[in-house]
Amino acid sequence: MNVVVCVKQIPDPAAPGSLDPDTKTLDRSGKLIMDDSDNYGVEMALQLASGDGDEVTLVSMAPNGETSGLRTGLAMGAAKAILVSDEALAGSDALGTAKVLAAAIARANPDLVVMATESTDGYTGTLPVQVAELMGLPSVTFAKAIAVDGSSVKVERQTESGYDEVQCPMPAVVTVTAGVVEPRYPSFKGIMAAKSKPVDNLSVADLGIDASQVGAAGAGQEITDVSEAEARTAGEIVVDEGDGAQRIVAFLEQLKVV
Amino acid sequence: MAIDKVWVLAETAEGGGPTPVTLELLTEARAVGATVEAVTWGADAAALAGPVGEYGAGTLYDVGDLGGMLPGVPVAAALAALIEGGNAPEAILFPATYEGRDIAGRLSARLDKPVLTNVTGLVESDGGLSSQHPVFGGSHIVTARFTGSGPALFVVRAKSFAAEPSGGAAAAVVAAPVPDVATTNTAKVVERHVEERTGPKLDEAPVVVSGGRGLGEAGNYAMIEELAKLLHGAAGASRAIVDAGWVPYSHQVGQTGKTVKPTVYLACGISGATQHLVGMKGSKNIVAVNKDQEAPIFSVADLGIVGDVHKVLPALIEALKAKG
């Protein structure tokens, strides 16, 4: 079974983000890391594709031939990666990105495509289903468990009130929520092996996509303004000296909540 | 009026009737569009005709019963068929829910139109609509607009607008059948598991008590649940402990989870990463307990207790119990 996992390489969320003053898009010029949200997809894929002949392929789109995040996924155990990197992709919106990923994913001929529900930096949360629609595949979003059952997947899909058991024939796109599996840490051996695993580096032209369809040129949306939001006025911050609970009770009483 | 026609994706709540966010979107649709129409699906979709009419929708397009299929594919296909049939609105408002995002994403790819998500405000500009999006934990607001032709697809976060009825008559129900999408419409719900919930829903509760990493271990989340119960509220969580598998995703408050705006938000052992702040900083009153005085959560707190949750929370539970 071939499982593709989409991996996003993002600016470290621990570092403060900034917007490019000209394009008003997120500044991605610094070092990129694998989005934490993708740990769960990679782990899930590795667990599902653990039999003989099974293979996990990572697919990513990133600027400047960035592979540091991909190496993390390869060190966890993925066999290979496809990276699409092209100056023409700068400023792509979610739909443009979906077109690129759909074309790249198709190259790996997957039985199953696993993605995070949404990325940590852009969090549009629509990209996986856009990819599925472009590839003509069914999709199941918000999975908290996935099992392969013959030629279909059984997914436990998070709902407002619990979960639904969803059955879906493969190939299919499944998005996973965080916390559903315990992602493995790459071993030293894995990290060393990852350095020599194949990364197929593709351009937009390699994928047969017209550059006018992607990047800022293809984006059907633009940012017109960035402004500071109204800040909340600072409250009372006190160090607990055994009276913290009483202070909270007094505050709640004043609001007539208790 | 910014635009002529707006559609709203209307969802049915558990137990019937429209979801609160449906009514919020209809109210905002009235503010920006001359004509408001709603789209829904389900076995008893027509039951929404009254309530959506009361909030301003003149027409309710009914996609009908989906036979257990997930709504993303069939509802998007039915919407696309309506649009291609010459009935296109200038904008469609989708709620940022499980189904709303699926349908918006599918429709976006089908129509080859972009979609703007995490919308918290809509403003008129140059005869069209621009959308507002909180970024960096809500410290900044980005304004964006579509550059191409419509329909403009907006996925809107719950609680961005206040719902107000217009007193309109029941909407006229118009069937919007699903075209042939056999190859993709194959994800089927075979069984539903409803977990029992005691107390109010997270995004509707007047009091929300949330826990984060500072709780130390999964077992300590029981304190959050007990506090929520004592305060007749709901229990929430930071992304960190959802990622760690302590509590299910449905509890998550923040950018990638739910938006809450309760009367009181009590954040316990939550540092206040930007990802969390965007989901709760609209709360009327915020109380935070955290041992790190520098934690960003204190920048939005009305009352901040710099202290150990393992001491403060048990004392708070005892004090609330004593009050009865």
Structural commentary:
The complex is a heterodimer of chains A (258) and B (324). Chain A contains 7 helices and 13 strands. With 258 residues, chain A is α/β, with parallel strands linked by helices. Chain B is 27% helix and 27% strand. Chain B has a 7-stranded parallel beta sheet with strand order 5-9-4-1-2-3-10, with helices on both faces. The N and C termini of chain B lie far apart (52 Å). The interface between A and B is large, with 86 and 101 residues.
Short description:
Chain A is of the alpha/beta class and 258 residues long. Chain A is 26% helix and 29% strand. Chain B folds into 2 domains: 3-175, HUPs (Rossmann fold); 207-323, Rossmann fold.
* Count of all domains of chain B: 2
User: Which chains share the greatest interface?
Assistant: A-B, 86 and 101 residues
Low-confidence stretches of chain B: none
**End-to-end Cα distance of chain B:** 52 Å
Q: So what's the oligomer here? A: heterodimer
Main beta-sheet annotation of chain B: 7 strands, parallel
Count of DSSP helices of chain A? 7
Largest sheet of chain A: 9 strands, mixed
Strand content of chain B: 25-35%
Total beta strand runs of chain A: 13
Rough outline of chain B: globular
Helix and strand content put the structural class of chain B at alpha/beta
Tell me, briefly, the overall form of chain A: globular
| Straight-line N-to-C gap of chain A | 57 Å
The whole-angstrom Rg of chain A is 21 Å
Class per helix and strand makeup of chain A: alpha/beta
CATH class of the largest domain in chain B: Alpha Beta
